[in-house]
Amino acid sequence: MSAHCQVLGTSPGFGHSISHSHVRSKRRFDPNIQAKRYWVPSLGRTVRLRVSTRGIKTIDRRGIDAVVADILARGEKI
């Protein structure tokens, strides 16, 4: 699976690793993706989400019902 947050859509960033001699090599900055289970009262079941840690904070702030409604409105399967 790719490093992609289902809540925020965060995906990897790309850049360079720079050594002491200043040689640049390509690298990838992955978001901190966690697999979480949430109970969604509006659906009456639990859902498994692959969310970043910032996405977890967003769920805590907005509520799981509002976040799941946005995910379903985008047409993403849960």
Which terms summarize this structure?
36% strand; 2 helices; alpha+beta; two-stranded antiparallel ribbon; two-stranded antiparallel sheet; elongated; 78 residues; single chain
Summarize the structure.
This protein has 78 residues and is α+β, with helices and mostly antiparallel strands. 26% of the residues lie in helices and 36% in strands.
Give a description of the structure.
Residues 1-21 are annotated as: Disordered. Keywords: Ribonucleoprotein, Ribosomal protein. Belongs to the bacterial ribosomal protein bL28 family. The chain has helices spanning 53-62, 64-73, and strands at 13-18, 24-29, 33-40, 45-52. The chain is elongated, with a radius of gyration of 16 Å. The model has no long low-confidence stretch (mean pLDDT 96). The strands form 2 sheets. A two-stranded antiparallel ribbon has the order 1-2. The longest helix has 10 residues, at 53-62. α1 crosses α2. It has 2 helices and 4 strands. It is an alpha+beta fold.
The biggest beta sheet reads: 2 strands, antiparallel
The H/E string reads EEEEHH
**Strand segment tally:** 4
Low-confidence stretches: none
Distance between the termini: 15 Å
Strand content: 35-45%
In DSSP terms, counting alpha (H) and pi (I) runs of 4 or more, how many helices?
2
The largest beta-sheet arranges its strands as 1-2
Mean pLDDT: 96
Tell the overall outline.
elongated
Radius of gyration: 16 Å
Residue share in helix? 25-40%
Structural class: alpha+beta
Family: Belongs to the bacterial ribosomal protein bL28 family.
Region (Disordered): 1-21
InterPro entries: Ribosomal_bL28 (IPR026569), Ribosomal_bL28/bL31-like_sf (IPR034704), Ribosomal_bL28_bact-type (IPR001383), Ribosomal_bL28_sf (IPR037147)
Protein name: Large ribosomal subunit protein bL28
